[in-house]
Design brief:
This protein is an all-alpha fold and 363 residues long. The protein has helices at residues 2-13, 16-30, 34-51, 58-75, 78-95, 98-115, 118-134, 139-149, 158-171, 174-192, 197-211, 215-231, 235-251, 255-268, 274-290, 294-305, 313-329, 333-350, 353-362; strands at 151-152, 155-156.
Length: 363
């Protein structure tokens, strides 16, 4: 039992080497018990999605997890069914399948409630919130959904709190936004005291400050979050944070540091992570723009947009803004205008009113 708990705790605590060693030892102990092996392998896959999963394909992980889910369903194992849905949710997010992500995460939450397992009750809402942030649900409806998710087994869910802060910033309520992300940081520091969630909270805090027009504060939020992501070997989060940091650095003229952050974003990005790959490409495009290479900057910016599904409204809009800025810098105003207008339309569809207004002023 202790070893099993360690395989759950080590990834959260940022100790990936100890986690792999514990998995290996646990698999040796259980011998030929298929049911126990399935459970351990499921937990191992959950961990390896953080650190990879390259070169394992998302489709292979999906198929393996779906097969395990069917076995756990036959056994009536609610905890393992919740865990399987957690993994499937991560796969859907990496692939940019937002509708499937939310549906799967909500099914996982049902199993978490049936199991009563606190870890699962805290785990499932992360993916629902990710779907709300990434997808087409308008911000007011996202806030309403978050109100229903914030109490997770008697604990305020820090991911939900931080997302609510970001949503409030999109609507222009910056005071409420800052209070919510600060409260999320307080709960994380005083009650949970684990490092990995700091990456998500840092991204949301930075998002609030960008919308507030305070890029220096956004940069201050991203730097420690990046350190944590690298420490716990969370490649997807490390890539996204490094890319966002690179974009901020480029905009204030810190070209050398921006280039290093963009390189880190590209190195860390999982091959099949739509968001990480897109942001890494956007960061590279911005660095090239700063060096005056408009043609290559445009190429990277357009490539970054291609894999992003239409229903990932905020991401597509921000990438379009970056492309429009490159075209404007090249003196191609007539081409930039409709791209900026499309970005405004996407922000308005999401009800990200602050971003829409900011983008509109630039056109």
């Amino acid at each position: 039992m202790v070893l099993r708990r360690l395989t759950e705790a080590y990834p959260i605590m940022g100790r990936p080497q100890e986690a792999e060693a514990a998995f290996a030892e646990l698999l040796d102990e259980v011998g030929g018990d298929d049911r126990l092996i399935r459970g351990i392998r499921l937990e191992q896959t959950r961990f390896r999605l953080i650190t990879g999963p390259d070169p394992i394909s998302l489709e292979a992980i999906r198929q393996q997890t779906q097969a395990a889910l069917e076995a756990f369903r036959d056994e009536g194992d609610q905890v393992r069914m919740s865990q399987a849905h957690y993994i499937l949710s991560s796969v859907h997010l990496r692939a940019g399948r937002i509708r499937e992500l939310e549906e799967t995460a909500r099914r996982g939450l049902v199993h978490a409630h049936r199991s009563g397992d606190l870890r699962e009750l805290l785990g499932a809402p992360w993916w629902i919130v990710s779907a709300l942030l990434a997808g087409p649900t308008p911000v007011p409806a996202c806030l309403q959904a978050c109100e229903e998710l914030v109490d997770a087994g008697g604990i305020e869910h820090i991911g939900v709190l931080a997302a609510m802060g970001h949503f409030n910033a999109m609507l222009g309520d910056l005071q409420q936004a800052r209070e919510l992300v600060a409260h999320a940081q307080h709960v994380l520091r005083e009650r949970l005291r684990i490092p990995r969630p700091r990456t998500f909270v840092g991204l949301r805090t930075a998002g609030v400050e960008v919308l507030a027009g305070n890029p220096e504060a956004a940069e201050r939020a991203l730097r420690p979050a990046l350190d944590v992501a690298l420490m716990v070997a969370d490649r997807d989060q490390a890539s996204q944070i490094a890319a966002e940091l690179s974009l901020l650095l480029s905009r204030r003229g810190a070209s050398h540091e921006a280039a290093r952050a963009a390189t880190l974003a590209a190195e860390q990005a999982p091959a099949e992570s739509v968001t990480a790959q897109a942001l890494a490409g956007a960061a590279r495009a911005r660095v090239l723009l700063g060096s005056g290479d408009h043609r290559e900057a445009e190429r990277f910016a357009r490539e970054a947009i291609k894999p992003v599904p239409d229903d990932m409204l905020n991401l597509r809009a921000s990438l379009l803004v970056g492309l429009a800025e490159i075209l404007l810098a090249a003196g191609r105003h007539d081409e930039a205008q409709p791209i900026s207008a499309e970005a405004v339309q996407l922000y308005e569809q999401k009800r990200n009113l602050v971003a829409a207004q900011s983008c509109g002023r630039q056109t």
